[in-house]
Design a protein that fits this description.
two-stranded antiparallel sheet; 6 helices; Pseudouridine synthase; 2 domains; 33% strand
Length: 221
């Protein structure tokens, strides 16, 4: 098992493929099994767990662990993708929003919640990814899933943006949380920045960057 700090704008596949190439090159291997234990959107950075060889059998074990995120939300506007992948489509007032209100609303999300995944997601629908339909403007119905929020902490309040630390169960979409947060505040919101800082007991502080992994490979060769 290897932990990596995924660069911003890279897809999860980009990182897996790069790690595969680096390992094959370092040890002159024709092929090696490499997989990840949970995707991270291109517009998000942070911790990804990558398994190689026999460790790929443990992917589900790591995928089931709770996740911690540091998320920045832009209040007063919405986008179809609930993040910066798409342009803003609506604008809402924020004059009524204060820090105390935000803290109270965040408390309301604690515990078990039914969450509707975003259409701009990798959820499978009729054998295709949901985002494939969304990008073509085709409407499809997604089902709600139960997620769990263990901790939600307001880190900064600077309207129109707030930053929140979230500890949640697997399968939670922080972009959907952005949509639901905007509604709960009688306004709108989208996710403007996201970093995954932990998966279970694994922290992004201990993760490889691609540069440090290159050095590690040279050391153990």
């Amino acid at each position: 098992m290897l932990s990596f700090n995924k660069p911003l704008y890279w897809t999860s596949f980009d990182l897996v493929n790069k790690v595969r190439i680096m390992i094959r090159s370092a040890f002159n291997l024709k092929k090696i099994k490499v997989g990840h234990a949970g995707t991270l959107d291109p517009l998000a950075s942070g911790l990804m767990i990558i398994c190689t060889g026999r460790a790929t059998k443990r992917i589900e074990e790591f995928r089931d662990l709770d996740k911690e995120y540091i998320a920045t939300f832009h209040l007063g506007k919405t986008t179809p993708s609930f993040d910066l992948e798409t342009e803003t489509d609506s604008q809402y007032p924020t004059d009524h929003i204060n820090e105390e209100q935000v803290r109270e609303v965040l408390k309301g999300f604690m515990g078990a919640q039914l969450q509707l995944p975003p259409m701009y997601s990798a959820k499978l629908l009729d054998g295709k990814r949901a985002y494939e339909f969304a990008r073509k403007g085709i409407e499809k119905e997604l089902k709600t899933v139960q997620v769990y929020f263990h901790e939600i902490e307001l880190l900064s309040f600077n309207i129109p943006e707030i930053t929140v630390r979230i500890l949640c169960s697997k399968g939670t979409y922080i972009r959907s949380f952005a949509r639901d947060l905007g509604i709960a505040l009688n306004s709108g919101a989208y996710l403007s920045a996201l970093e995954r800082t932990a998966i279970g007991q694994f922290s992004v502080k201990d993760a490889f960057t691609l540069e440090s992994f290159e050095g590690y490979l040279q050391e153990i060769k």
